[in-house]
């Protein structure tokens, strides 16, 4: 962009090489490694799905979690159609059992390493909390009669679409990035704290705003049931009809009400469209059309990534795994991104869209923004727009903390919402003013979560993220 303000150049030779020639490491190491990983992961998923072995392990995994928290080993299975799956769930429960027996010394969180998440930051809180292992990454059951699919929380969007598409089915809402997991996308339903959270578990517990539908809403709105391990190690399945209060509190709760172990999601027959002009494109390539370029962020990782010669020669290898990029990120690159890079999604009412866009332009002047619309009902139907700004700010007065706080204040004052995968500099009071905690607090009290899990703010504030 004209007048673009470039970040200061690194002073040491090593920092200069790491920042300006990172593409060498990415092209010759991370891209081949990502490709091999994807092939092996795909083959592993195919074998498990067609052998139908995942349902026979699920209960065992859940039981392991219960044991870590603290619960007797004689619990009944919740679903007799996934016996193995329930055994996996029991493995989870056993971890919760152990945590209870050890005296509930520190609150719990998942043991998944921060570098494996698709989000921008790693959680520092994992170093001080009790880590519970959740090894749940399989599609459990495709029920064409009920038009639903049961999946574990670490199932990714790419994995799920690769499973459903050959069967002639798809999700009503398909987030574009392959590596987003189910658990990350389920967010709290009515935009209070209970509605903001992006893996399948991530799409549920985090914020499923990256993709939405005028007909179906957010990703959480096509989820019909959740299976969880609670603070006491017991398991529960909740839906709109059973434990409805808990069901509506799960999205955007960031794993602070329980451990998500399975999700039931609506599926639809893949539709075929006739248009005056026909362009043939693999359906999964359309679903995940932003994956290869990580939207437009690939240009900051591989400067020539959009060149014709690169796209023909190595385009089939991109993108590098985001988790591997985070794992191999040097301190110099991290500092550069902290001070000279902006990644935010803000959900604002349509009525203030003009003012919001003007503010974004004034504060960061990121040339490319993503707009997603979503209907939100809070006693009435309201149209919200998600403004996503990702890139290097082109203004001279950009400051990561001060700039973000000014935008947060605008969004809060206009009854909007910040997506919590990004940096949040709000105080806890400001955070609770943005998100209605009433139902969330009721569920925290009802299921004895106070000493078992941190509050949402304790997991999303910039102060607890690296």
TrEMBL record:
<dbReference type="InterPro" id="IPR016166">
    <property type="entry name" value="FAD-bd_PCMH"/>
</dbReference>
<keyword id="KW-0812">Transmembrane</keyword>
<dbReference type="GO" id="GO:0016020">
    <property type="term" value="C:membrane"/>
</dbReference>
<dbReference type="GO" id="GO:0071949">
    <property type="term" value="F:FAD binding"/>
</dbReference>
<dbReference type="InterPro" id="IPR036318">
    <property type="entry name" value="FAD-bd_PCMH-like_sf"/>
</dbReference>
<feature type="domain" description="FAD-binding PCMH-type">
    <location>
        <begin position="75"/>
        <end position="270"/>
    </location>
</feature>
<dbReference type="GO" id="GO:0000246">
    <property type="term" value="F:Delta24(24-1) sterol reductase activity"/>
</dbReference>
<dbReference type="GO" id="GO:0005737">
    <property type="term" value="C:cytoplasm"/>
</dbReference>
<dbReference type="InterPro" id="IPR040165">
    <property type="entry name" value="Diminuto-like"/>
</dbReference>
<keyword id="KW-0560">Oxidoreductase</keyword>
<keyword id="KW-0472">Membrane</keyword>
<feature type="transmembrane region" description="Helical">
    <location>
        <begin position="20"/>
        <end position="43"/>
    </location>
</feature>
<protein>
    <recommendedName>
        <fullName>FAD-binding PCMH-type domain-containing protein</fullName>
    </recommendedName>
</protein>
<dbReference type="InterPro" id="IPR016169">
    <property type="entry name" value="FAD-bd_PCMH_sub2"/>
</dbReference>
<dbReference type="GO" id="GO:0008202">
    <property type="term" value="P:steroid metabolic process"/>
</dbReference>
<keyword id="KW-1133">Transmembrane helix</keyword>
């Amino acid at each position: 962009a004209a007048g673009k303000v470039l970040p200061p150049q690194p002073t040491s030779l090593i920092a200069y090489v790491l920042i300006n020639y990172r593409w060498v490491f990415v092209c010759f190491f991370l891209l081949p490694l990502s490709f091999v990983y994807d092939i092996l992961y795909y083959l592993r998923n195919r074998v498990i799905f067609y052998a139908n072995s995942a349902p026979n392990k699920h209960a065992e995994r859940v039981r392991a979690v219960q044991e870590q928290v603290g619960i007797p080993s004689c619990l009944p299975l919740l679903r007799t159609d996934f016996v193995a799956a329930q055994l996996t769930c029991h493995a989870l429960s056993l971890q919760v059992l152990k945590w209870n027996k050890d005296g509930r010394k520190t609150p719990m969180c998942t043991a998944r390493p921060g570098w494996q998440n698709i989000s921008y930051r790693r959680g520092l809180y994992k170093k001080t909390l009790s880590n519970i292992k959740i090894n749940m990454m399989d599609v459990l059951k495709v029920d064409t009669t009920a038009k639903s699919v049961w999946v574990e929380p670490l199932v990714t969007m790419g994995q799920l679409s690769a499973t459903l598409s050959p069967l002639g089915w798809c999700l009503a809402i398909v987030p574009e990035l392959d590596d987003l997991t189910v658990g990350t996308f389920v967010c709290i339903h009515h935009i209070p704290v209970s509605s903001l959270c992006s893996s399948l578990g991530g799409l549920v517990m985090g914020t499923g705003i990256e993709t939405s539908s005028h007909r179906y809403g957010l990703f959480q709105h096509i989820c019909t049931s959740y299976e969880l391990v609670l603070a006491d190690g017991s398991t529960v399945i909740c839906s709109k009809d059973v434990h409805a209060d808990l069901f509506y509190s799960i999205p955007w709760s960031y794993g602070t009400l329980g451990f998500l172990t399975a999700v039931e999601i609506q599926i639809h027959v893949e539709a075929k469209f006739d248009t005056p002009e026909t362009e043939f494109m693999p359906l999964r390539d359309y679903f995940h059309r932003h994956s290869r370029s990580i939207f437009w962020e690939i240009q900051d990782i591989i400067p020539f990534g959009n060149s014709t010669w690169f796209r023909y020669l190595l385009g089939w290898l991109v993108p590098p795994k985001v988790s591997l990029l985070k794992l191999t990120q040097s301190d110099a690159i991290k500092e550069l991104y902290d001070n000279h890079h902006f990644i935010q999604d803000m959900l604002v009412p349509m009525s203030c869209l003009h003012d919001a866009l003007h503010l974004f332009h004034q504060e960061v002047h990121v040339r490319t923004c993503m707009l997603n619309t979503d209907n939100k009902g809070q006693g009435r139907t309201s149209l919200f727009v998600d403004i996503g700004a990702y890139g290097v700010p082109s203004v001279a007065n950009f400051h990561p903390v001060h700039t973000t706080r000014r935008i947060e204040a605008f969004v809060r004052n206009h009854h909007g919402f910040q997506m919590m995968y990004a940096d949040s500099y709000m105080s806890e009071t400001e955070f609770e003013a943005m998100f209605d905690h009433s139902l969330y607090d009721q569920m925290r009290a009802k299921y004895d979560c106070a000493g078992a899990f941190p509050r949402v703010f304790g997991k999303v504030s910039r102060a607890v993220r690296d």
